[in-house]
């Protein structure tokens, strides 16, 4: 019985280790700043509708720091929270803000709108936003791409926009 038990203990240990390693591997949603090739941009510019998947995690990160779209296109943006933490502790949203306001200025306004999931009732600075979600959830927003230029996007959950922000480039 002894060698059998030893083998099964070893097997369980190995399984736990493998599980741990693969778990670590999948939770790696690091920031990827990938430049688009001219062919990719060309292809993108011809689409009426573009779909974007933006991942977020328990480490307070988006997986994109830059999004590119073309004026007049319709964007179907899905925000996914790949973590497990609840919305009250690690809530995320995607907010695309207008040019007249900076990320830090907007964050200061948004923090006062807790009752509205950190979206100010006055939407004058908001071009588009998703719902606020917790781990395991996803949410989609559909919006028209604004005029050419560079816009900012952020997560308006308190304290997150210092890291969770990026550029929305309209060509
Ligand atoms: Cu967030």
TrEMBL record:
Keywords, A to Z, come to: Copper, Electron transport, Metal-binding, Transport
* UniProt xrefs under InterPro entries: Azurin (IPR014068), BlueCu_1 (IPR000923), BlueCu_1_BS (IPR028871), Cu-binding_ET (IPR050845), Cupredoxin (IPR008972)
The protein here is known as Azurin
Q: Which residues form the Blue (type 1) copper domain?
A: 55-171
User: So which domain of life are we looking at?
Assistant: Bacteria
PROSITE patterns hit by this protein: COPPER_BLUE, PROKAR_LIPOPROTEIN
